[in-house]
Amino acid sequence: METIDITKDPYFMKNHLGSYECRLCLTLHTNEGSYLSHTQGKKHQTNLQRRQAKVNIYTKNYIRNFKIKLYYHNQLKRLRERKFKK
């Protein structure tokens, strides 16, 4: 049987009362078994997909904006070089 280390889960948190929280879904669990079964459930899996979609959109926008800034930076650099050559 496969063992799962829940401490490596980025959404796992043990609160000051000893309960377990899923920071992705904002759910409370009384024990580790309840938390582990939640991570296999539909709500958690749906939220994981939503989160991944947001990350993908953010990454695409970041790359696009970087390319635009790089393009304009290169254009300005060429203009400055032309001015100094004259």
Commentary on this structure:
The protein contains 2 helices and 3 strands. It has 86 residues and is mostly helical. It has a 3-stranded antiparallel β-sheet with strand order 1-2-3. The model has no long low-confidence stretch (mean pLDDT 88).
List keywords for this structure.
2 helices; mainly alpha; 3-stranded antiparallel beta sheet; 3 strands
Topology, element by element:
Elements: E1 12-14, E2 20-22, E3 27-29, H1 32-39, H2 42-85
Antiparallel strand pairs: 1-2, 2-3
Care to give the gist of this entry?
The protein contains two helices and three strands. It is mainly α and 86 residues long.
Helix content: 55-70%
What shape does the CA trace take?
rod-shaped
Largest sheet: 3 strands, antiparallel
Characterize the quaternary organization of these chains: single chain
- Strands in their spatial order, largest beta sheet: 1-2-3
Question: Order of SSEs, N→C?
Answer: EEEHH
Secondary structure: number of strands:
3
How much of the polypeptide forms β-strand, as a percent range? 5-15%
Structural class per helix/strand content?
A: mainly alpha
